[in-house]
Protein 1
Amino acid sequence: MSATLKPGDTVGILGGGQLGRMLALAAAPLGLRCHIYCPDQQSPAFQVSDQHTIANYEDIAALAAFARSVDVVTYEFENIPTTALDHLSNHAVIRPGRMALEVSQDRLTEKRHIADLGIAVADHMAVSSLADLERAVGTIGRPSILKTRRLGYDGKGQVVIDRQIDLAMAWNQVGDQECILEARVPLTMEISVLAAGSPDGGIRCFDIGENRHENQILKTTVIPAAISQNLADEARAIGEAIIQSLDYVGVLSVELFVVDDGAPRLIVNEIAPRVHNSGHWTMDGCHVSQFEQHIRAIAGWPLGDQGRHSDVTMVNLIGDEVETWQNQLADPSAKLHLYGKGETRAGRKMGHVNLIKPNS
Ligand code: ADP
Ligand code: MG
């Protein structure tokens, strides 16, 4: 099992969504092939990849055959059962490793890991029953947010505990699952840092963007974020510390809240052990995109220059907004990225557009 790929080698990607698709598109110019593993027959990444396997993450025989056919395995979403990685690790190098997946799959483990590094997270408590919830609300107070520990995304699996809400109803709403209650932070801005770690221990961080959400789904990322140099440096230092703590190879994203109670400070919201929607601006704003950087890292190749040559506003095209694609193209400098998804659904990420203003 070689740790350094050669041109012509194959990257195995678990997950076939738009992130897998854009990883495969970034691997191609480097002379690398991709093999996508995904249960969904209509996976957007299949359209641009050399090979694909349609099988679920419990299919041990399919996982073994996949692992044997590739030179490194990576993943584009964090909800892959760790048992799948255990089967794969008998046959292939997995980057980023199991620890990153395990820590980030569970909001409680994730918060504890980050807090143990001396990095601020929101006050939180584990909640496994209605009685726990009542106790936790007694301690943390309202407003707070009840979140399922696992499988949440785009605000799914979350209930705001405001002054009015009945706790039994809230508990029902999350479906009686292992949860955490966290204090609702009086944030003034949401930002994220994308950090890349290489097998030799090198770390490079992209510039910091401001993320704006609509209906808890990322709508735009604006680069650069309107924050001080100090705060940007602090965000990058947090990215580096998390990469080091997880022995991380690949691109990692960290979502942060800016809180201003006199002086602005940072609180980590969550991490994702993968390329991230808030890094899509790098495709057209940087010398090397987050996707190329991830491929370089997991291939054991030198990281590229993550420097930014343009200011960018990234706008997600969600649901039927994708039908505006022609209007987007009316601006000749706008860079349109569509994900090739067959079916348009409300709330589904269908594409994005990068609006670019080169730095003179
Ligand atoms: P998801 O996994 O769905 O992205 P997040 O924990 O990132 O879940 O929550 C989605 C959004 O909800 C965040 O981007 C932020 O806008 C808001 N949010 C989540 N947690 C908090 C919090 N503790 N305080 C304030 N806002 C929050
Ligand atoms: Mg989030």
Protein 2
Amino acid sequence: MRDLPAHTLSIRAWAKVNLFLRVLGTRTDGYHGLDTVIVPVTLHDRLEIHALSDPRFRTLSLSVDVTGEPEIARAVPTGESNLVLRAATALAEAAGVRGFADFLLEKRIPAAAGLGGGSADAAATLRGLNGLWGCGLDDVALRGIGADVGSDVPALLAGGTVRASGRGEVIRQANAGAIEWVLVTFPFGVSTASAFRWWDEDGGVSGPDPAPLVDACGLFLRDGPGPALSALGPLLYNDLEEPVMRRHPEVREARDRLLAGGAVGAVMSGSGPSVAGIVLPGSDLDPAVEQDIGRLSGRAPLRVRSRAME
Ligand code: C5P
């Protein structure tokens, strides 16, 4: 690894998938109540931060450059709506920082894909700047700032598998064993706000009690990954899936083909459109089906693994 200049950090921002996502209804603040298990996976962006806090500066100056595959990078805004800049601004306001932070964001996680890319970048920003700027904020304070930047930020700040409730900001540590995933991503995005609005428009159906699924997560240690994954696979669900699939039939197609090709479970992640399939350790999808899925989605499926807590 190359040496980094002073006041510089290079960190990875991990994508996530949701094992289940239960929408509990609309709240008075316009958000939706949720219950979900969020699993970080090995797909990641890389964020290089060069930053300094010093009261002798009179202002705060922030900049971000986005690089990476053009199709993925160009979907990320570089203005004020960029979640890295929003997170940095929120942290600077909370901690009274003056100085600068310059970011180089190398995108690999597609935007508006249901994989938490923007929230992961925001979480990495908060962690990285808290150190470089010497803010000294604890996890609870960072989580509070993160929740205002994006609903998935508190979960992704945690760094491991978590169960999230509230509108996403109430976090408990969870465990789901090691899982190998096939991720189907699409060249189009779905905004989180649209997916929740479609759920409302379609009558707001909430999925089943997730207790059996959470119990299946506990089988990894007792029964080993094979039986645990076979029990877990059919229980995956996402209440936003049907509303998104009704409007984007290729998402349903992708899920059905993953199951036909040998996945033991498959579900849309977050607000979509990406679909995550579980494969048994060391096994592959039927290669013909995998190619077929690549033609359908316009991109080769990605193989990723669940990430353990750091
Ligand atoms: O918090 P975040 O910016 O990720 O959310 C984007 C939009 O998604 C919100 O403005 C809201 O419309 C919707 N949302 C919701 N309920 C949640 C999370 C997000 O309705 N729990």
